[in-house]
Design a protein that fits this description.
It is a single chain. This protein has about 230 residues and is of the alpha/beta class. It is about 35% helix and about 25% strand. The chain has 7 helices and 10 strands. The strands form 2 sheets. The chain has a 6-stranded mixed sheet, sandwiched between helices. β1 and β2 form a beta hairpin. α3 (about 105-115) packs parallel to α5, α4 packs across α5 (about 150-160) and α5 (about 150-160) packs parallel to α6 (about 180-195). The radius of gyration is 17 Å and the shape is globular. The relative contact order is 0.20.
Amino acid sequence: MPEAFLHVDRLVHAYREGERRLPVLRGASLILDRGEALALLGRSGCGKSTLLNLIGGVDLPDSGAVRVNGTELTALTERERSLFRRRHIGFIYQFFNLIPTLSALENVSLVLELNGGERRESARRSEAMLEAVGLAARGEHFPEQLSGGEQQRVAIARALVHRPSLVLADEPTGNLDAGSGEQVLGLLRELCERGGSALLLVTHSLAVARRADRLLVLDDGGIGEGSGDFAW
């Protein structure tokens, strides 16, 4: 049978605090198919963000492997991982991580320009992406001039404008009120489905996790099956 689009295979990772070794992941594994939305549920501090950074090639595990569409990220150099991430992966963060000195349009188009895109074409695609997230009239505004929900929609536009095959979302509604969070989550799913992107969403909210196609739980360094009846 063909391998899953994303295969996380027995990741082990620990942080060092002086002479102490603090285990975070103890053989965590998961698979994600192309076009699927998977929610990873876990308590705050259980290692969800660490896992996303390992999957995205930001950090390397102590052992184990991450393969995205047949490419083993854990076997690449730091530069190769950076280029792969820039071209094939979109990141969405809880605290938006927009560049404050750039307008909404400039924040979105930056990734295209870093990938070598021509400036005029990058601007055209970015404008279309801002329109898709309902912010066509806000492109010249800076992050501080936008609401939290608007900033997160800009962050979604930035993460998807280069048409990534994999989208990693780290608590994307955690810094929003309930109404804005619901809108942002619905928009994220709609745009990922439209573009055929696989979505891995990490959250501590069961209500958010239930919006995915499938639910897994990260607990005590490992990943297991979850369900809508999972209780904290």
